[in-house]
């Protein structure tokens, strides 16, 4: 207990006292520790002045303060139940790492090894911008400095990315979809990604359409609320 008040610690054992006693000089000790000390010494371990067992008396005020401190420490410790996985730390794996250079950026791709065990389930809330600006066609950088317009809109591209996420989740994972334009809407409640959940999530995704303004804050707020309210 790094924040323990120094006067709560026995000067002999340096541990939190449970049965403190006080001498005539006002120094407190753990009863068992000072009694053991006085079996071999006749002086105070602090002041070196004469000290005997009959000079000691219970320090009830200090004991009550220590008990109150213990109770506060116990109540402040929360137990969080989490899903855990066991990993053999003695195992080693080869990672496939590739890199490429494009437009002054280095792109690094890491492919994890297969069959290293089951990961912990995850909850994902996808917050999607469906405002009118998402109807803009995607532009692709051509071989020259010119940009080429694509037949896909920005929302089409986002939908494709979300489909990849949906198909990569397992039945132990859960997903929700929130769209935002003028305001946020939960278009798909937090649900396990089993076969039915995956099918329903894809159907909800296809219904997204561009309209309205961009209320990003309402989208973020709603997304956080979905995850908080759906905590396992």
UniProtKB/TrEMBL annotation:
Residues 123-232 form the VWFA domain. SUPFAM superfamilies: RING/U-box, vWA-like. InterPro entries: Ubox_domain (IPR003613), VWF_A (IPR002035), vWFA_dom_sf (IPR036465), WD-SAM-U-box (IPR052085), Znf_RING/FYVE/PHD (IPR013083). Coiled coil: none annotated. Residues 3-76 form the U-box domain. Pfam families: U-box, VWA_2. One of its GO terms (molecular function) is ubiquitin-protein transferase activity. GO terms for biological process: protein ubiquitination. PANTHER family: WD REPEAT, SAM AND U-BOX DOMAIN-CONTAINING PROTEIN 1. This is U-box domain-containing protein. It comes from Rotaria sordida. The lineage of its organism: Eukaryota, Metazoa, Spiralia, Gnathifera, Rotifera.
